[in-house]
Amino acid sequence: MHLMSKYDVIVVGAGPAGLLAAGRAAEIGSKVLIVEKMRQPGRKLLITGKGRCNITNNAEIGEFVKHVYPSGKFLRSAFSQYYSKDIIDLLQKYGVESTLERGGRYFPTSNKSLDVLNALLEWVGELGVEIKCDIKVEKLLVEDAAIKGIQANGQLFLCEKIILATGGKSYPATGSTGDGYELVKKIGHTIVKVMPALVPLETEGQVANKLQGLNLKNVKAVVWINDKKMSESFGEMIFTHFGLSGPIILTLSRFVGIALLEKSKVNITVDLKPALNEQKLDNRLIRDLNEHGKKRIGNIFKFWLPATMVPVFIELLGIDPDKECHQISGKERKQIKHLLKNLPFTINSIRSFKEAIITAGGVSTKEIQTKTMESKLVKGLYFAGEMIDLDAETGGYNLQIAYSTGWVAGNSCK
Fold first, then answer.
1. pLDDT band at 176; cut points 50, 70, 90
2. What is the pLDDT of residues 59-90, one digit of tens each?
3. What single-letter DSSP state applies at residue 368?
4. What is the spatial distance between Cα 77 and Cα 92, in angstroms, rounded to a whole number?
5. 23 and 123 in contact (C-beta within 8 Å)?
6. Which domains are present in the chain?
7. Are 16 and 403 a contacting pair, CB within 8 Å?
8. Strand partners for 219
């Protein structure tokens, strides 16, 4: 087997976590090699934020960790070492200005994720980091519970420190196919069961299909697990041919995925009028029905709903659309009110890793040092980014996890 050059640090994966890890390790004097199995670095970074790249979030650490699962507390030390201002400053140094948008989300002012990737590549390039693409790691070389190198493409690359930043399993076309999990399982690490997260949901029946393409803003979705309220989210959602998607649905998908794994019954109700409580909504319905007493009820729903929703809504209610408003009974009015506040969907499944923004599960945080990202089982092995059992809501949180854990891992390779 052909022996290649010896390095101080080898980083596996050229995504944001890997690039931050490699750059920081090189800054403090290490000879660093990044190996990437794809033909180009950073492919997944290019598609983040729909190609705009939601760089990070400006939330304070105490607030940020509340948006991370299963336990954001693991990240407190990493965030205290490298946080949102640090990545914004680094990118600015290489010509990427950032714009703060609603929800505390930072985007490149250019709205181009390629600018973010190019800035990181320029940074690591200036620091002398070597990047080899089309290199697939087959094995981690370990002796006496310590790292000795990697075997990749039938060749040996020797080093005393390895940072694994291979990503999870989401968007496998970008190279995230779970390779890192298999590598570390073979040397004794525990992998918490992985599943798609920040992913659309498939629903029973045809209601979502009939509404496909309809985008709703300022609505509230509530997850019910075995008829008990589990979580809720307010904002924007969209109906698809298979079910539900959009920001608030993606946020809730983690709870749904876990419940489905446990064979629980999962329902989502959508409150179409969250700004109005039951009494205020009832008062409005009474007012509108009285005001338009001789008009057909089918024509009045346009005051309460988007036009494309009206026929589907009337069908669910089972009310004759030709019925005049003054003929609507108190019972029927209550049915209308209830459905406006509780449009129901039974969830059959979550969509696959191909459509998931992030992966839930991964290398157990119980086996990783919080201050260094080093393995507690193998000396010289470090973890960064999505392959760790950490995932967060949308809003730049997941990318910041990648930067911070990557930087800390690189900084620990002294």
1. confident
2. 999 999 999 999 999 999 999 999 999 999 99
3. B
4. 24
5. yes
6. 2-195+360-411 (3.50.50.60), 200-351 (1.10.8.100)
7. yes
8. 235
